[in-house]
């Protein structure tokens, strides 16, 4: 490190239970991140990381400009995923939603799919990346977009947090902020990569959820439940998504995928919770 290079960010403790990092078990160094395991709650997380490297990896992995050609491709190839997420949301809410906030809008694919499915729903989104935010503003001009969660006022009937919590620096604070902007009995639908997936257990730190340089914490189902409960949510339950999704079309592969989901060993965890 040169004399004028920025120092890496060092978290003082576990981002969900606050156990001091000094007591954590070292796991290893992956790129700009030093990973540890909390001895109190078992969460794996990045104890240190570099914000500049994080931004560079994020642009390389997801999008680097508002006209990035990956954005429309991502939206087109994930329509079966958006369909499944809409169904999970509708079941959790008991029907449609009057006002929804999507935190971590990304490509805008889910929000656009939901808008087409429920044209009367008032939509807002949070996306800190300016390139992605500009792309979604062009795609979905009727949605109100924010750069930060603290700009949002609410209240909302539902909030979606889809493959986002693993990226944020303060996951418990994000969940508490979401809890505050929901109406009483409002619904949170959340997805995260599964650190207890069969593939992750087999490959360890070489598994995609760990190897992704933009991930700062690695959730198991127990860690998601604990985080949401600590944030004030009730009726926290894991949602077993229907067969298919992610481009899987072979019937045998779809059945195997569903069995992994039912056992909590699929690559994704999906949860619904109420304020």
Structure description:
With 275 residues, the chain is α/β, with parallel strands linked by helices. 35% of the residues lie in helices and 24% in strands. It contains 10 helices and 12 strands. The chain has helices at residues 51-61, 70-77, 79-93, 109-117, 130-139, 171-181, 198-203, 208-211, 221-230, 251-262; strands at 9-10, 25-30, 33-37, 44-49, 99-103, 122-126, 144-146, 156-162, 182-193, 217-218, 234-238, 268-274. The strands form 2 sheets. A 7-stranded mixed β-sheet has the order 7-6-5-8-9-12-11, sandwiched between helices. Helix 3 (79-93) packs across helix 4 (109-117). The chain is globular, with a radius of gyration of 18 Å.
What labels describe this entry?
12 strands; globular; 275 residues; alpha/beta; five-stranded antiparallel beta sheet; seven-stranded mixed beta sheet
Break the fold down into its secondary structure elements and pairings:
Layout: E1 9-10, E2 25-30, E3 33-37, E4 44-49, H1 51-61, H2 70-77, H3 79-93, E5 99-103, H4 109-117, E6 122-126, H5 130-139, E7 144-146, E8 156-162, H6 171-181, E9 182-193, H7 198-203, H8 208-211, E10 217-218, H9 221-230, E11 234-238, H10 251-262, E12 268-274
Parallel strand pairs: 5-6, 5-8, 6-7, 8-9
Antiparallel strand pairs: 1-4, 2-3, 3-4, 4-10, 9-12, 11-12
Helix pairs in contact: 3-4
Low-confidence stretches: none
- Helix and strand content put the structural class at alpha/beta
Q: Main sheet, how many strands, which sense, barrel?
A: 7 strands, mixed
Radius of gyration equals 18 Å
Q: Strand-residue fraction?
A: 15-25%
């Amino acid at each position: 490190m040169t004399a004028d290079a920025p120092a890496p960010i060092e978290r003082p403790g576990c981002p969900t239970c606050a156990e001091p990092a000094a007591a954590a078990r070292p796991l290893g160094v992956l790129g700009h991140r030093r990973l540890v395991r909390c001895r109190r709650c078992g969460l794996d997380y990045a104890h240190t990381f570099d914000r500049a490297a994080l931004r560079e990896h994020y642009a390389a992995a997801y999008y680097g400009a508002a006209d990035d050609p990956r954005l429309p491709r991502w939206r087109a190839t994930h329509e079966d995923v958006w369909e499944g997420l809409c169904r999970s949301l509708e079941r959790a809410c008991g029907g449609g939603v009057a006002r929804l906030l999507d935190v971590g809008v990304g490509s805008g694919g889910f929000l656009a799919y939901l808008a087409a499915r429920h044209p009367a729903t008032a939509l807002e989104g949070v996306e800190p990346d300016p390139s992605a935010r500009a792309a979604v503003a062009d795609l979905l001009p009727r949605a109100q977009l924010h750069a930060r969660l603290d700009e949002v006022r609410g209240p909302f009937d539902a909030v979606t947090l889809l493959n986002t919590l693993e990226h944020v620096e303060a996951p418990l604070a994000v969940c508490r902020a979401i809890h505050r902007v929901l109406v009483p009995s409002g619904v949170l639908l959340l997805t995260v990569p599964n650190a207890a997936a069969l593939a992750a257990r087999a490959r360890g730190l070489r598994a995609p959820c760990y190897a992704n340089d933009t991930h700062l914490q690695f959730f198991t189902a127990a860690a998601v439940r604990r985080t949401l409960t600590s944030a004030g949510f009730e009726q926290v339950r894991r949602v077993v998504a229907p067969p298919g999704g992610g481009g899987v079309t072979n019937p045998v592969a779809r059945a195997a995928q569903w069995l992994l989901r039912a056992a909590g060993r699929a690559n994704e965890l999906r949860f619904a919770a109420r304020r």
